[in-house]
Design goal:
Elements: H1 5-17, E1 21-30, E2 33-36, E3 39-43, E4 46-47, E5 55-56, E6 62-63, H2 65-77, E7 81-90, E8 93-103, H3 110-116, E9 121-122, H4 129-137
Parallel strand pairs: 3-8
Antiparallel strand pairs: 1-2, 1-7, 2-3, 4-9, 5-6, 7-8
Length: 143
């Protein structure tokens, strides 16, 4: 898995400069949301399918893409410390924050990993657009 030096530097800078950085064992709520202690974070930079969302594969068969995104995220964080830099309130949900979340010892954020695996889309900000294009070209996950 290749990560650009500028993206890594940006992620580390955001974690270093955010007002609050939480580190804890994460509880995965869905493919784009996790809870650390008493804080719920939507992963920054992605749009993940809802848990009850079904997707259609290349054979026109339905598959539980939302469940797969959630389960893959849970697998990545299982038993590991996760750090989330608090980027502020989520405009869509009052009780949720936007977070840049990274498993300790890893260089890519959890959102970037989901996009790379094709289990989430890059959001309108386009932060992970190259990762999304690679997933699309490789026909991974949602592609």
């Amino acid at each position: 898995m290749r990560i650009s030096a500028s993206l890594l530097a940006s992620a580390l800078l955001i974690l270093a400069t955010t007002g609050d950085v939480l580190a804890a064992t994460a509880i995965v709520k869905d493919g784009g949301t996790l809870q650390l202690a008493n804080n719920t974070f939507r992963l920054d930079g992605i749009d993940a399918p809802a848990v009850d969302q079904a997707c259609i594969d290349e054979h026109a068969d339905s598959w539980a893409c939302g469940v797969e995104a959630r389960d893959q995220l849970a697998k990545w964080v299982e038993g590991k410390q996760v750090r989330c830099g608090d980027l502020g309130p989520d405009p869509a949900f009052k009780k949720r924050r936007v977070g840049l979340c990274i498993v300790e010892g890893e260089t890519a954020s959890l959102g970037q990993l989901l996009v790379q695996k094709g289990l989430a889309l890059a959001d309108a900000k386009g932060k992970f657009e190259p990762d999304e294009m690679a997933a699309k070209d490789g026909r991974r996950g949602l592609w």
